[in-house]
Amino acid sequence: MNAHYLAFDGITKQFGPIDVVANTDLSIEQGSLVIFLGPSGCGKTTLMRMVGGLDHPTKGAIRLEGQVVRTPDRRRGMVFQSYSSFPWLTVEENIAFGMRYRSDMTGAEKTERCRHYLKLVGLEDFATAYPSRVSGGMRQRVAIARTLAAGSDVLLMDEPFGALDALTRERLQVQLREIQIREGKTVIFVTHDVEEAVFLADRIVMFSRRPASVIADIDVNAVLGKQRPLEIRETPKFFDLRNQVLHLIRNETGDPL
Ligand SMILES: Nc1ncnc2c1ncn2[C@@H]1O[C@H](COP(=O)(O)OP(=O)(O)O)[C@@H](O)[C@H]1O
Ligand SMILES: [Mg+2]
Fold first, then answer.
1. How far apart are the CA of 189 and the centre of ligand 2, in A?
2. pLDDT of residue 1 exceeding 60
3. Is 60 helix (H, G, I), strand (E, B) or coil?
4. pTM of the model
5. Residue ranges around ligand 1 (CB below 6 Å)
């Protein structure tokens, strides 16, 4: 494990006169799932866009394995709240789309890989369906599978389950946690749902109001361990941590998220 796998070095971001991120340092370990939690408008999406290479810091740099991030790259895949599948492609074709420029793989390898990720997200029976014919939860699974199939080592997930009903959301949380452990991916996941944060996280990084700076950094694994069966949500240690996070938010922001 490399502690400086993904590093934010003195990141400041301004849009015109507005400070959105203020001198933020952060180091993310390879293979960890880190939750970004903070009040709405504090700069979380801006931070994610900078990791994705879609936006650039005004000062400082983001480095992945020592290389400064400047442009989007398939190593850093993004999954957003709005469903980002192509309606004219089937589920399978949507997943394959992420591999279209990979000249290092044969067609047969791509097909094989596509099948693997279809199965991993439990969509093998929907390979030939069009996105409009599957549920919102399934469309988000398509987006996750496409990002994994593309070979992304880092998944950037900006409120990806925000538009889903509670039960679908819970199911996807369990699946994401399992996939992330199995595949060893590094995930940055933005949410303003405290329960989602505590359930999913290896670590929770909590941001202040805009301009975003880190106000708390919580090692969730130290309390809950790495494996997260659904039932863990009903345990006292889960409640305690959830309450602790809620208090921190109330104290630091004066507001619920
Ligand atoms: N392209 C932009 N131009 C100007 N202001 C922006 C731009 N993108 C975001 N902002 C502003 O930056 C702040 C942080 O936005 P954002 O990163 O989307 O917050 P969050 O995702 O935490 O809700 C907001 O005040 C927003 O209006
Ligand atoms: Mg946002």
1. 11
2. no
3. strand
4. 0.91
5. 15, 20, 38, 40-46, 210
